[in-house]
Amino acid sequence: MRRTSYVPLVGTALALAVFAGGREVASSREPGNACCQEGQATAGRTVVNTQNLPYGTDPAQRLDVYRPSTASASTRYPSIIIVHGGGWSMFDQAGNRCHATYFAQQGDYVVFNIDYRKLDNSTVYLNDIIEDVFGAILWVKDNAAKYGGNPNMIGITGDSAGGHLAAIAALAADRVSATGGFAAGRFTFKPVYLGSRTTVSPSEVAVNACASSFGVMTIPADMTLVSLRDYKTRLNMLAPPVNTAEHYAACSPMSNIANKGVAKIPFLNAGGSADTVVPPASIDAFHAALVSAGYPATRINYPGLGHAYLNCGRGGMGADAAKASDDMLAFWNRHLANTPPAR
Questions:
Q1: pLDDT tens-digit series, residues 230-259
Q2: Which of 56, 66, 107, 138 gets the most CB atoms within 10 Å of its CB?
Q3: Number of domains the chain is built from
Q4: Domain range spanning residue 242?
Q5: What contacts 317, CB < 8 A, 6 or more positions away?
């Protein structure tokens, strides 16, 4: 069911108008649950939010849309897809509501904030989650225009596990197939949403830019946290008998950099210098591999920050998250090149 609320920005006139089923419903104020840091918003700009739109049949295959009130079927603002983190096994898209609101409010972007199925050791594995993300991309391609977004100008971003999922989606478009088959000698991903398609090509799931924050780029070598390392044996990120190094490589951004038929889009690779979950060296290695392969990539290493500095608490976006969001917004503004509408 689509649900609604109004969320004010601290110290600004920005309100988050939310629709259910395409119809505006009664609103409620939630003081203290601010979406952005004070001073970041522009007074009077309104973001319209439509929640819990399905892109698949599973309850977790849902997304929320955040768009400037000026967006319409004729505006074609660039689109951004946000993929949340949580070790592939927890949380949902609500944790990124502040970033989604900020990009829509500050940058004239239509933002699609997605959830996905979680690892559960019995029915959902890492390749299934990747298929969710590819399905969400196809859904956005088919539906962005309804919300004023450009289906042909899409950025994708995520943090931690979401950083991994954003990067693998950006790099592994040539592994997508309408028939699927994640097995030795094939290693393809079938998007959970195909629309009316009977086939799907790499260009149909291609995105135009990717911003990954403290993402896991080599599965499972980058996973130093005990709870993540245990996935290899306790949770099994891939279903036996495909729980092998070869299969993990198919799901690893690092192993997909050289894929043929995938455009060399701009990347932003960000992380904290004090991150002990996804060490800076692993992001450095991924960034260097991208540059060596000819990708236009930017590396930001935030001094003294650990893992999960982008998290939004009940008080809204903290100073660390605000700085990183500003840097990401600048990246979108450079590489998602719509001509801004006249104001």
A1: 444 444 566 655 567 778 888 999 999 987
A2: 66
A3: 1
A4: 34-335
A5: 34, 35, 36, 37, 40, 98, 99, 102, 325
